[in-house]
Specification:
With about 90 residues, the chain is of the alpha+beta class. It has one domain: Alpha-Beta Plaits. About 35% of the residues lie in helices and about 30% in strands. Strands 2-3-1-4 form a four-stranded antiparallel β-sheet. Strand 2 and strand 3 form a beta hairpin. The chain is globular and about 30 Å long.
């Protein structure tokens, strides 16, 4: 089952770019990620990811993302939700 993850809060574009360059050099998606979108929001920055499964997202977080977020001093807690529909062109 696909899982969605939302990171939103006091994140700057510089922090977003730093983490992205570290965990996905060349903007290459990690194994198990279906897509990611990020951009400015009222609270700073918002990132939405959709993964093939919660296990795939957790494995990436444990192996790479968690450490990169700490290094960039991003303290935002992700919110998870079950994805029941994906619409593609």
């Amino acid at each position: 089952m696909a899982i969605g993850v939302i990171f939103e809060g006091q994140i700057t574009q510089a922090q977003y770019d730093q983490v992205g360059n570290e965990v996905a050099p060349g903007n290459s998606p990690p194994s198990g990620m279906l897509y990611r979108a990020g951009g400015p929001s009222e609270n700073g920055w918002c990132v939405i990811e959709v993964w093939e499964s919660k296990e795939a997202a957790q494995q990436f977080f444990d192996a790479k993302l968690g450490q990169a977020l700490q290094k960039a001093q991003i303290l935002v807690q992700p919110k998870f939700f079950e994805v029941v529909n994906i619409m593609k062109p």
